[in-house]
Amino acid sequence: MYGQEIKDSTLTAAGFYHDTAIGDMSSLGFQKRCLSVHGQGDVQVAANISIDLMNQPRVLLNSCNVKLTVYPNDSKFLIEAFNRDPDTEFRFKIKDVYALVNEFDLADGLSNALEAAVIEHKLIQYPMISSQVRSFYIEPNRLDAPANTLFTSKMPRRIFLGLVDAEAYNGSYEKSPFNFQPHGITDIHVDYCGMSVPGRPFSLDFKKNKFIEAYIQLQETLGHTRNNFSCNSISTKMFKEDGYTIFGFELSPVAQDNSLFELVRQTNISVRLNFRDKTPEGGLYCVVYAEFDQIFSLDALRNPIIDSIV
Fold first, then answer.
1. Percent of the chain scored above 70 by pLDDT?
2. How far apart are the C-alpha atoms of 154 and 251, rounded to whole Å?
């Protein structure tokens, strides 16, 4: 979703370097990440906390209690070590973590007016985009994915899907968990509200270069085909074979406008996949990222109220 300028600047402070090919030792991004830690001793990084509450532009009221609990993944999931000695184990060790918080000191008049508004209206509401990540397992030697229903209540704005090797999904030094490959997929569509997206079924054959429609739909879902000044630097070659085979689906007409909300639509969301070749030994995981409209509220006593029906 990020543009190339952000990837080459701000995100490098978080240790991110863009890969032209995922899971490839010759990738410039992988080599830069190696250089940033090899022989450097302790490495300091900084990144935004990517949770719903902090991905919206409004600040919290005063006197709110906020507690953040972070659980790190296994080191095998976090570390790429393609050429390691089999007897060598690597550990991702965190020595210190702290949060930088911006605080606004309001003028007395504005602070009093804000408090009066809270008492009068009883609630202060924060509209935001809530993200949900789901995954489901596809057994080996299958030509289609098992029937599944991912969401059973509110309709998401848009959905992104990708297929990753089961071993990499569970953590492996030798495989990247972000290496999304086509795995011989011929068709993928989302069923909701009695409709299917896309309306015209895909007929994909990545070996014969029949994938452009899915690539354009990904860029459409991200909003990069409707302007000439931003891109995510994913080329057709990268989409085809370099670990960026991610499928995007817009389910809402306001999917890309965070300032607009739709009425809640109750529905079931299902994903269907078909393959030209049998799925590999060990199986695959389909990782699904979905975005929903969400309202977060605070009452006069600063108690949080989340209308979550996802």
1. 93
2. 12
Secondary structure of residue 177 in the 3-state scheme: coil
Q: Is residue 202 part of a domain?
A: yes
Residue 271 lies in a domain: yes
Length of the chain: 310
pLDDT exceeds cutoff 80 at 254:
no
* Burial of residue 200, with CB atoms counted within 10 A of its CB: 0-12 exposed, 13-18 middle, 19 or more buried: exposed
CA distances from 48 to 14, 200, 294 (A): 9, 39, 20
Read off the pLDDT of each residue in 133-149 and give the average, rounded to a whole number: 89
Residue 38 tokens read as 């090899």
CA distance 276 to 180: 17
Nearest to 221 by CA among 244, 245, 263, 251: 251
> What average pLDDT does this structure show over 186-191?
90
Residue range(s) defining the domain that contains residue 296: 48-306
Q: How many structural domains are present in the chain? A: 1
Answer yes or no: is 17 within a domain: no
Report the CATH number that the domain containing residue 93 is assigned in CATH.
2.70.9
Alpha carbons within 13 A on the beta-carbon side of 73: 11
Is 27 inside any structural domain? no
297: which strand partners?
125, 305
310 pLDDT band, cuts 50/70/90, is: very low
